[in-house]
Design goal:
The protein is of the alpha+beta class. 28% of the residues lie in helices and 26% in strands.
Length: 240
């Protein structure tokens, strides 16, 4: 049986995706199973966001203990920006996300923890605004292991290298601290010396892999006139 990833939109414009199971032999009959969301789905998402806000606030407060009022206000702004950006990424709302993209530097998409400044793609705010409807195939970097080009349109890149797991409900959150560590070099501080990043992390999913199936998403921000803007979206996982 062949399995394909499919994406569709509900009448109220909620974007969903799932798995389509195709039989090997042709048949005139089609059976469609629709797995809908129960009535509390949106409430559960809001509850997860609230928990995330509380954890980020706790982490920011730890860093702010010895700071002045201006630094505390800046951290509070970063907290709000992080939560907004994460919610927009979760909804794949690139239109509104573009408002948070750095106005001059744009945002770089990195599929792995090592940031290749020569090959990882940078998009301006205006380009991010159009990404959700962009069907052009881009080369986002190279696959770990094979070294082959990552040739995907944005839709596929999003599901493979941004929200391949639900980072709106992470196990661990790092405030300017690396959690996921594998074999690849982490150069986030060298590439973004003026940045501040938040890491959303899962320690693993299948016990048989003993933690090497961990996932991380790092959101990197820099300030412009007191406001935080997104400059990097870094996906990371165990690499060979």
């Amino acid at each position: 049986m062949k399995i394909e990833k499919i994406r569709f939109m509900t009448e109220d414009e909620l974007k969903l995706f799932g798995l389509l199971h195709l039989p090997e032999q042709k048949t005139k009959k089609v059976v469609i199973f629709i797995h809908g969301m129960h009535s509390n789905c949106l409430k559960e998402r809001d509850d997860r966001i609230a928990v995330l806000e509380q954890e980020l606030a706790r982490l920011m407060k730890i860093d702010d203990n010895d700071d002045n009022d201006d630094d505390i206000e800046l951290s509070n702004n970063l907290l709000l920006t992080t939560v907004n950006v994460l919610e927009l990424l979760n909804d794949k709302d690139m239109d509104d996300l573009s408002d948070f993209v750095h106005p001059t530097k744009g945002v770089r998409f990195s599929p792995y923890g090592y940031i290749d400044v020569d090959n990882h793609l940078v998009f301006t705010a205006g380009q991010v605004d159009d990404l959700d409807d962009d069907t052009e195939v881009y080369t986002w970097g190279s696959y770990d292991g094979s070294g082959e080009d990552i040739d995907l349109d944005f839709d596929d890149y999003y599901y493979d290298f941004i929200f391949d797991v639900d980072f709106s409900d992470p196990e661990l959150i790092g405030n300017n601290a690396i959690i996921g560590i594998g074999n690849s070099l982490i150069n986030i501080e060298e590439v973004y010396p003026d940045g501040h990043f938040v890491e959303l992390h899962f320690t693993g999913f299948d016990p048989q892999y003993e933690g090497i199936d961990w996932r991380s998403l790092r959101l990197v921000f820099e300030t412009v006139n007191g406001d935080w803007y997104l400059v990097g979206i870094i996906h990371d996982e165990w690499t060979i």
